[in-house]
Design a protein that fits this description.
The chain is mainly beta. Helices cover 5% and strands 40% of the residues.
Length: 129
């Protein structure tokens, strides 16, 4: 049986900071949402938790580009994580979770597991694509 997911509204466009990340809370835990207006797509979402330290810090990392790959550098140990795949560029055994993200009017929505009926109800109406 496939796990149920939903598109959870986590913030608005006004909450975003260009070329930076913000931390949001989801039913799946803390997520870092990045807005890179000079790229297409411009929105990325990965786990906020640095797998090397266990600290919720990735939204505070510095964004950049390594050989065309959009990345964030962890503010603690400086490992670079791909914003597309979550893969650590220095250690192929480490990866952070990536979340599908979309713009729905003024809302930023993430596709997150909908483990509980209450969580699914809070996700809002299905998004047409």
């Amino acid at each position: 049986m496939k796990a149920r997911t939903c598109w959870e509204a986590v913030c608005t466009v006004d909450d975003l900071v260009a070329d930076s990340g913000i931390a949001v809370w989801t039913e799946d835990g803390p997520v870092a949402v990045f807005y890179l207006p000079h790229r297409l797509p411009a929105l990325f979402a990965i786990s906020h938790t640095d797998p090397f330290s266990g600290s919720n810090v990735l939204a505070r990392g510095i964004t950049g580009d390594i050989n065309g790959e959009p990345v964030v550098a962890s503010p603690l140990y400086k490992q670079h994580f791909s914003l597309r795949s979550g893969q650590c560029l220095k250690d192929e055994n480490m990866q952070v979770k990536v979340y599908p993200v979309l713009l729905d009017g003024n809302r930023i929505r993430l596709e997150v597991p909908g483990a509980q009926a209450a969580a699914r109800a809070a996700c809002g109406p299905p998004v047409s694509g």
